[in-house]
Amino acid sequence: MEKQKPIIELELYLIRHGQSQGNVGYDKEDLTPQEQHDPILTEKGVKQAQLAGNHLSNINFDRVYSSGLLRAVRTATEILKAQTKEKPLYILPHLAEAGLSAEYETTLETIHQINPEAILSPELDSETPLLIPSDNKDDAGLFKRADFVLKFLRENFNKGEKIALVSHAAFLTFIVFSIMGFTTETPFYDINFANTGITRVILYKKGTNPYGDVVFDYINNTEHLSAIKNQPSWKNQDG
After folding, report:
1. 39/238 Cα distance (integer angstroms)
2. Which end of the chain is flanked by fewer CB atoms within 10 Å, N or C?
């Protein structure tokens, strides 16, 4: 009997944003709400994002998603610039960082200052807010949000699509947890996602791959940053 060929349903690229001003800190104490909750990329962070884009330029992404936070939007935009064909950026609000204040809001007008082609993912209700936060200490809420992201992707993409998710250090960890089937009852560990670290995950049709339905091809790959000295440089608590 001929063995069944492994069938890839989804190829995921999990990418942390480039270095933000929040990662390196400010030289002042009185921060604006945007500086506090939604810092932009540093010059180094922009370079990191460009290098990540160049590194991924040979991958024809079916979609690139980012959170609605500006550091993720800019990183995703630089990745899209390196694609061979022009593509819009899709905002998936559930990708927002853990610990984001529920009081902080953003608008498409703000996002469009970085990427005029960014749109809310059309599969979502048009009234969905652009940021969906969860408290840093609310593990159940973070799992719920990560589980939603994985379910959303698997329901909408299951024919071998290549999807990039640009998000944040803490929340990317919960996405990995969700992919691995972890729950709040599972002992936790941390993944030190570097700025623009890339994780490739392949999801196979159930039972078709002898090595498992989920394969982590690599985790937190930063080889594209070799051109920048003194790498890596990040603070996980600043997302």
Report:
1. 10
2. N
